[in-house]
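INFO batch 0412 | record 1 of 1 | parsing
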Amino acid sequence: MKAKAKEYASAEVGRREVDSSVYDLVETKPIPKGKVSFEQFLDWCDEDTWAEWVDGEIVLMSPASSRHQLIGGFLYGVLRLYIEIRNLGTLLYAPFAMHLPFVRRGREPDLLYIASEHATRLKDTYLDGPADVVVEIVSEDSIFRDYHDKFREYRRAGVPEYWLINPLEEKAQFYRLSESGRYKRIPLEKRNLFRSQGVEGFGLKVSWLWEGKLPDTYEVLQELMPELQTEVLQREIAARRQAEQRAQQAEAELARLRAEIERLQKQQTH
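INFO prediction complete | emitting tokens
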């Protein structure tokens, strides 16, 4: 990891330039001057703002690429269904702050998993303490931050399992916190299969992530959970697909209504 951090050290300059230019990319409200507390950060931040709290300073995140979003959506879909069916805990996605007071950070990982036994850490607007599993999807501006800054912070804060998914190089690395408090890389099994300890029984074929068209979530789930009775899983899948279809129909209807309102407003102005 030291070699990887040194390799990407030059990316830190680019990261700072991207952070400072985020204002040019998105409409933002003014950032408070000087250092702020984590509570002030939460009061300032809203669900439409992707920012992190770093040693009292607010750092805006740049928009994610389509590939970043697709991989994140695939991982979220597979993990969410797996975790819900197994009743293991809660899975959240960015922007949602993970408060790490020991290292004075409020990071917003791409995905974070909280096991049921740590459910009390989950508050309305943030996670009070480390997640059981943190997933970061590397982008051009986050290379140094993910491989160096967050790697050290998550280790010191006691995040038990850290996934680094790098679409830029089509590489994925997985780390487990040892008893000595250091991250040890988790070796892949045959066929590039990663087996998580944080999400009990969950396996991930790394090759899935680099396919031009990402695999169907439900087909992956069936492969991951062959021990379940087929009819039980099929009922679960059918119910969830119906729910997704209803949600899509509701979004389409909302878009139609918005378009109709805009049309009527234009008519009134003419």
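INFO post-check: The longest helix spans residues 230-269.
INFO record closed
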